[in-house]
């Protein structure tokens, strides 16, 4: 709540808005959903990283501009991400409570969210950079590229 700079009741309303809604058997604002969906973790990690960077220069502490700036940064990088602001509030709340940690991968250098408390995990994600293992679809290809392949392609291209 202190990370968002908003009153506690506002953050609670925003994070608990769709508690009753279900998607794929998981609640939208649940750590299990973040465990199962690398797409959500990818966007939440970009958001949390952008938020923390924006928070470094924001004064006073209760200012809500860093949240808006981080949301705009994410929308500029991925305009059709389709993730509600509620999930970003939830990710910030979990980051503050220590359930999520922002780590940096040693092999690719990307920032990613590490889930410190796994619940009913379908697969083991502890210490695993999902950026390296995330699979990106490319038009015209039958197989998707892994994050490591995309990083290698980006490093080969000049400029």
From TrEMBL:
Top-level taxon of origin: Bacteria
This protein's name: Flagellar transcriptional regulator FlhC
Organism: Ahniella affigens
């Amino acid at each position: 709540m202190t990370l968002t700079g908003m009153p506690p009741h506002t953050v609670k309303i925003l994070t608990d808005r769709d508690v009753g809604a279900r998607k794929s058997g998981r609640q939208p604002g649940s750590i299990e959903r973040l465990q199962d969906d690398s797409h959500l973790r990818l966007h939440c990690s970009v958001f949390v990283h952008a938020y923390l960077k924006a928070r470094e220069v924001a004064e006073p502490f209760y200012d809500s501009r860093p949240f808006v700036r981080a949301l705009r940064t994410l929308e500029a990088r991925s305009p059709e991400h389709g993730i509600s602001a509620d999930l970003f509030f939830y990710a910030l709340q979990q980051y503050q409570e220590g359930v999520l940690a922002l780590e940096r991968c040693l092999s690719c250098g990307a920032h990613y969210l590490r889930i410190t408390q796994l619940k009913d995990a379908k697969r083991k994600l502890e210490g695993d950079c999902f950026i390296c293992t995330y699979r990106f679809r490319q038009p015209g290809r039958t197989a998707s590229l892994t994050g490591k392949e995309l990083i290698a392609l980006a490093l080969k291209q000049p400029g």
